[in-house]
Structure prediction request, 153 residues.
Amino acid sequence: MSSDDAYSSFLDQAAQDTGASKSSASAKSTSTKAVDTEVPIELQSVEQYYTSEADEPFEPVSLRWDGNNMPSEKEFTGLIGHASEASIETMTPKEFDPQSQYKEVLQAVEKAGDGKSRIYRVSHGKTRVEYYVVGLDKEKGRVVGMKAKAVES
Prediction:
């Protein structure tokens, strides 16, 4: 057996599920709804990661919304199935992306929606956060965009 094979075997074993139970409370606290309707094609090709202590990929968002305007923080809480409106705040694109790292994400969201974007920062406790970068698609009655999970300590 070559050392490459041994190393590969080691990596396979390390990646296996240990069977340790995961706390359902922590799983619930970081899980919100992101898709309940067709995802626009403009969002399907975005491959970018949000830089934080976790470096998570952006994922598509497409949620039914009958409103003529973007949802308020309280309405967005219900839309994503989050437990507490107090932990959701809105940000401007400049506040969210001061170094223009996420231009591709913002452009894709604006293209998929009405040309504007809004960022919702959803807190899950003290260190876990989700960023929803979304726009309004009035024609199809939905809020569309991208979301990323972050760890901020």
Notes: The longest helix spans residues 3-15. The longest strand covers residues 128-137. The helical segments are 3-15, 24-29, 41-44, 73-80, 93-96, 103-112. The CA atoms of residues 97 and 103 lie 8 Å apart.
